Structure formats: C-alpha cells, structure tokens
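Appendix B. Chain record.
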Amino acid sequence: MTLHLCATPQEQTCRLVQAITDALAQGIGQRGHAVLAVSGGRSPIALFQALARAPIAWPRVTLTLVDERLVPPDHADSNAALVRAHLLTGAAAQARFLPLVDDPLDLPGCVARANARLHALAQPLTVALLGMGDDGHTASLFPGAAELPSGLDPAYPLPYLAVTPPSAAHARISLSLAALLGAGRLLLSISGEAKRAVYARASAPPPSPQLPVSYLIQQSRTPFDAYWSPV
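Structure tokens predicted for this chain:
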C-alpha cells in the first residue's frame, strides 16, 4: 500500500482521475469492458466532474456503487443521485449505470438484485474508489455494525450485503471486503489531518474491526493506493 501526499485538492483530483483512467484503459484493453465502483458523500463531487471529462471509452464501462443508503433515488442522501448529477454527464453518460436501490422499502430484495446484476457482468471490479470516515469505516463497513463480521470475512460469498450502521443514518448496502479484494485496483481518497491520523492508526498491524479500513490497507493481495490532501 502507498499513501500519496498531495499538496492541494486539485492535485489529488488530477492524480485520482489519472489513476482511474489508466486502470479503466487497462481493463478495457484486457477484457473489452471495465467496471468502476465509486463511493458517495460530498468529497467526490469535484472528482466526479473531472472524471466525466476524462478521455475514457465510456460505452465500454459499467459504473456502480461501492455502497448506498436505503433511500429513494431522488433523496438528498442518495449516492446514485450524486453520480447521476455529477458523473453521468457529457460523454460519461454513455456508461452503463447499475444503482443499488430500486425499492427503498425492500432491503433484502435490493441486496439480492444488486448481487445478481454484478454477477451477471461475469467479471470482477476493475477499480473501486473508496472513502473513509473518521471512525475508520470504508464503504459501509462500520465498526460495531452487527453485519461487520460477514462484511470483513474474506470468504464471504456475495459481493454486496446489508449493513445497519450503529449510529449513521439509514440502512445501507455495501460491497464486502471479499468483493473489494477481488478488484483489480483499490483507490482511497482522504483529506484533512484527522483522517491522516486515522489512516496512520489503521496502517499499524494487526488489522482491527475497530478500524475496518485497516483490512484493506494492510493486505497485499490487491494493489492499493491512498491519496491525501490537506483539505
């Protein structure tokens, strides 16, 4: 694993866009198609807008989500809404998009359908873009969640699982650790001194369920790069 220190948010965005563009190009070259999973929140907006303008063969890309809240698709907290507004624009609108929530009243059904859609692609994730919370969660693998042991099980058989965060709002759908480790490349975007300190703690062996991101940082199976900016 490598932590890349960026002087500005703009440098961080440029380096992440280049890393994603390179990974997708490699995946398309190898398979004819690539799969990109992205995270939500406010921090990726500038990245999404820059990525939408990148020279990517978008018709050959399937775009999906690392995680999602169990909310309607037009809800302010919907990651799908964020992707539609800021990433699926211009040429990037030619990508195929697989949202995770089609019925906010049916969590088990949404998980089952999300798993079926990802399995139907018959290929692993090419690249996953992750974030990290101050509590050390990544995707929606929250410390203290009842489903966390399954989510961190490297032999968990399904890509997605339901997660009920102990404190955060909304039930979630999240990629499992097993699915993330099956990706071709993992990229983590973080900013601020507080998250740099969390990253440092999560880098110290052994990995701990108190800091779920530590299971990604401390593994050697899948190429992992983190990009940090001061703000």
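Further analysis of this model is presented in Appendix C.
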